[in-house]
């Protein structure tokens, strides 16, 4: 139990990942699936950024002279997650465009109705 | 132990220009991808695309010859040394797979010059080429990189571009297949990213060799975390590489896409995640860690199930392209089987089967595409007697199908023979029976097409000889692919020796 | 096209500040959080807001689709060329044309600032195009196609 409380970042991220994963798989509405995918990706970004935190250090911006080399939190995960956020935004934009196309063609965005309409 | 790798010092006395080739190929392909929307005429677009692909192919060939002479090398991007910057590691395996990807793509684009406008609207052709060049650049990036997060970014770019070349044709089935592919792929990407987060929390590095060193040092007591991250990587990359129960997106996506896109997807796009998985298993974690867990046995089991069930599902299909797509699932089962065996010969065979399957499946899909385009039919029954109308195309289809079944001399046989040898090496004789059964099942769905195409009185009457054949110049890329496939079977000994010099085990 | 004059007046007062904020984040990417993507998305959002408030005809007259697409593609090519120059010159051991400068000032950090500006332009134009495509389905005055 104590390890769960100590590693609260991992526990929170995994719970949020599970929620997003289940939304992506189980809901029928396409917009809800897109929201689920975003929640899933956001949980991983938060986990990654929280791995860089060192207790008691400053944010890595030089304001009025450098403190010292060891005086900042790790800026590497934040930079990496910028790239990850760009990737997630691109996939979201693509899925939204495909949703609009699907809506034009079938008139609905519920996936089970689309399955029934076409038969496959 | 870590002190040996903390900073690789740079004595760059001889600047060998050939070492720029991997980075230069990726950049050349990406930049020419963004020139494509500016061109309007078909000749300009295809001329540009084929020119760039040809130039990249020549550079890759020079790279392979250089590695054949002097061995593997690493390349630090921007001259930042390894744990601080991204490192590319180019060995024998990466260079030959890079050459394969560029060459197969060149042949497919050449074929597409003659057949793509019949399937997609004319103003979308330049977008198809943009997406194709971006896809190829990202696949080369996955193959060359030695940094986990860089591999993830290129994996995402390849997913988006691959989904793009499915939906560039604007029909209902395409959009549905594209959405299914994108949703499942983003699921896989989320899992892979979570795995990267766990690995980063264990080791603090993102460069594969450094993670290996750090994991070997800090392994004590963290076996559960390591197991979780291995499982996350396996499932995430298994979704993208069509491992058995996670393959459900593949038949719809590969069957409904236009024929050149199907060929690119089946031959190239599902192979790069598998290479990434091989690198993660053997460079990041290493046999010492993987051997203690059961993950290789699980991969072996899923490979076996994929081989059997992929062939069974293919048997029951009525449409030609869906059948070939399920055959892709079965062949991916062979590659996972080879990885799951866990010994050096198995891993070499996995890479060899990637090469063999890319050459075979691309010509199969392109031949099937020309059948469908010339006759307008889609189901297998309607292709009876097509051997009289399109003999050369059916001949190309036959040779590729024989390689899939495993007739000697052709590369499919070399793969199955060596997989049997590898299975005997680890004393699992019952796997030989499974290899035999899957070969018989493969014959069960390829032979009817060939026999009904060429033979049978009531199939052939009413058909005029060569009435629907395409001119030879359009079939030339298919013939080149088939000739290369046969040569890959003839010279399999030297190819296997080349791969063995650079393989990650032992 | 929004008919409410309150919204139109307030937007016409606020939009320049939004754009200057976006350009500030883009330009100071090497000194403070942000950079090309974040600044570009703010600029793109300001263009989309302009399109919502003033309607599609006024926006199409002001920002032509062909011109913006060419600007985006040229920026991408220049980004590729500059990155290529940086990588190749590092490999061959040449010294880079733009030096590092004094850390902490605007003109420092080598090529990072021009690259941020190029990325921001591309991202802003791409966000604007996505909004146009969602609404209209195709470009109205684009004569990039036959």
- List low-confidence stretches of chain A: none
Q: Give the tally of structural domains of chain A.
A: 1
Treating each run of at least 4 consecutive H or I residues as one helix, how many helices of chain A?
Answer: 5
Please outline the major beta sheet of chain A: none
Largest interface: chains, residues each: A-B, 33 and 27 residues
CATH topology of chain A: Helix Hairpins
Oligomeric grouping of the chains = heterotrimer
The percentage helix of chain B is: over 70%
- Number of helical runs of chain B? 21
String of helices and strands of chain B: HHEEHHHHHHHHHHHHHHHHHHH
Report the structural category of chain B: mainly alpha
How does the overall form of chain A come out from the CA principal axes? elongated
Task: Give the rounded overall mean pLDDT of chain B.
Answer: 88
Q: What is the chain-wise order of helices and strands of chain A? A: HHHHH
What is the radius of gyration of chain A? Answer: 20 Å
Mean pLDDT, all residues of chain A? 86
Taking the alpha carbons of the first and last residues of chain B, their distance comes to: 20 Å
Give an overview of the whole structure.
The complex is a heterotrimer of chains A (120), B (506) and C (146). Chain A is an all-alpha fold. Chain A has one domain (2-118): Helix Hairpins. Chain A has helices at residues 2-6, 8-26, 30-50, 76-106, 111-118. In chain A, helix 2 (8-26) packs antiparallel against helix 3 and helix 3 packs antiparallel against helix 4 (76-106). Chain A is elongated, with a radius of gyration of 20 Å. The mean pLDDT of chain A is 86. Chain B is an all-alpha fold and 506 residues long. Helices cover 73% and strands 2% of the residues of chain B. Chain B is globular, with a radius of gyration of 22 Å. The two termini of chain B are 20 Å apart. Chain C has 146 residues and is mainly α. Chain C has one domain (5-136). Chain C is built from 4 helices and no strands. In chain C, helix 3 (65-92) runs antiparallel to helix 4 (112-136). Chain C is elongated, with a radius of gyration of 18 Å. Chain C starts with a helix and ends in a 10-residue tail after the last helix. Chains in contact: A-B, A-C, B-C. Chains A and C meet through helix 4 of A and helix 4 of C.
């Amino acid at each position: 139990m104590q390890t769960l409380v100590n590693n609260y970042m991992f526990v929170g991220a995994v719970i949020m990942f599970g929620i997003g994963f289940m939304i992506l798989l189980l809901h029928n509405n396409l917009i809800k699936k897109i929201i689920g995918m975003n929640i899933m990706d956001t949980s991983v970004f938060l986990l990654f950024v929280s791995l860089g935190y060192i207790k008691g250090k400053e944010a890595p911006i030089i304001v009025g002279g450098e403190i010292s080399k060891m005086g900042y939190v790790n800026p590497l995960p934040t930079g990496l997650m910028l790239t990850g956020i760009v990737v997630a935004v691109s996939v979201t934009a693509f899925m939204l465009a495909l949703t609009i196309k699907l809506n034009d063609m079938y008139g609905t965005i519920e996936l089970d109705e689309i399955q029934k309409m076409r038969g496959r | 132990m870590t002190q040996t790798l903390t900073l690789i010092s740079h004595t760059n006395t001889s600047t060998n220009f050939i070492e720029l080739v991997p980075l230069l190929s990726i950049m050349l392909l990406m930049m020419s991808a963004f020139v494509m929307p500016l061109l309007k005429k078909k000749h300009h677009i295809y001329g540009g695309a084929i020119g760039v692909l040809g130039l990249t192919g020549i550079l890759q060939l020079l790279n392979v010859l250089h590695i054949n002479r002097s061995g593997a090398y690493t390349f630090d991007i921007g001259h930042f040394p390894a744990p601080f910057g991204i490192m590319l590691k180019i060995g024998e395996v990466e260079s030959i797979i890079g050459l394969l990807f560029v060459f197969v793509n060149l042949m497919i684009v050449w074929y597409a010059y003659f057949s793509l406008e019949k399937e997609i609207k004319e103003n979308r052709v330049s977008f198809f080429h943009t997406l194709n060049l971006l896809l190829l650049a990202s696949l080369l990036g996955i193959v060359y990189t030695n940094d986990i997060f860089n591999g993830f970014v290129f994996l995402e770019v390849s997913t988006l571009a691959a989904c793009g070349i499915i939906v560039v044709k604007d029909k209902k089935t395409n959009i549905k297949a594209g959405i299914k592919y994108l949703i499942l792929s983003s699921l896989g990407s989320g899992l892979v990213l979570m795995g990267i987060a766990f690995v980063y929390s264990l080791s603090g590095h993102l460069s594969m060799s450094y993670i290996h060193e750090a994991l070997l040092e800090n392994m004590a007591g963290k076996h559960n975390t390591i197991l979780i991250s291995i499982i996350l990587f396996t499932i995430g990359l298994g979704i993208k590489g069509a491992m058995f129960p996670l393959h459900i997106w593949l038949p719809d996506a590969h069957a409904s896409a236009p024929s050149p896109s199907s060929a690119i997807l089946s031959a190239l796009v599902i192979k790069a995640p598998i290479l990434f998985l091989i690198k993660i298993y053997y460079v990041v974690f290493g046999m010492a860690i993987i051997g203690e867990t059961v993950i290789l046995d699980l991969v072996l089991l899923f490979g076996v199930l994929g081989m059997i069930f992929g062939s069974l599902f293919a048997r029951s299909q009525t449409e030609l392209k869906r059948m070939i797509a399920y055959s892709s699932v079965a062949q991916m089962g062979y590659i996972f089987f080879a990885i799951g065996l866990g010994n050096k010969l198995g891993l070499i065979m996995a890479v060899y089967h990637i090469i063999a399957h890319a050459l075979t499946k691309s010509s199969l899909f392109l031949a099937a595409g020309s059948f469908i385009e010339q006759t307008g039919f889609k189901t297998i029954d309607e292709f009876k007697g097509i051997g009289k109308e399109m003999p050369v195309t059916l001949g190309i289809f036959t040779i590729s199908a024989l390689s899939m079944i495993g007739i000697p001399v052709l590369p499919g046989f070399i793969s199955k023979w060596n997989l049997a040898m590898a299975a005997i090496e680890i004393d699992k004789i019952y796997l030989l029976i499974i290899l035999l059964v899957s070969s018989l099942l493969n014959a069960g769905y390829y032979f009817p097409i060939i026999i009904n195409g060429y033979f049978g009185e009531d199939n052939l009457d009413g058909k005029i000889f060569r009435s629907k054949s395409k001119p030879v110049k359009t079939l030339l890329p298919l013939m080149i692919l088939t000739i290369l496939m046969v040569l890959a079977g003839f010279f399999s000994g030297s190819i296997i020796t080349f791969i063995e010099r650079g393989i990650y085990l032992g | 096209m929004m008919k409410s004059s309150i919204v139109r007046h307030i937007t016409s007062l606020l939009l320049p500040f939004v754009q200057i904020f976006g350009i500030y984040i883009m330009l100071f990417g090497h000194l403070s959080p942000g950079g090309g993507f974040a600044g570009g998305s703010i600029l793109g959002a300001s263009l989309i807001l302009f399109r919502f408030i003033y309607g599609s005809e006024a926006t199409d007259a002001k920002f032509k689709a062909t011109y913006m697409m060419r600007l985006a593609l040229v920026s991408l090519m220049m980004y590729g060329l500059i990155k290529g120059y940086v990588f190749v010159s590092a490999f061959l051991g040449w010294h880079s044309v733009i030096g590092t400068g004094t850390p902490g000032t605007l003109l420092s950090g080598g090529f990072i600032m021009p690259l941020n500006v190029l990325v921001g332009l591309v991202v802003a134009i791409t966000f604007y195009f996505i909004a146009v495509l969602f609404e209209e389905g195709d470009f109205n005055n684009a004569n990039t196609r036959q």
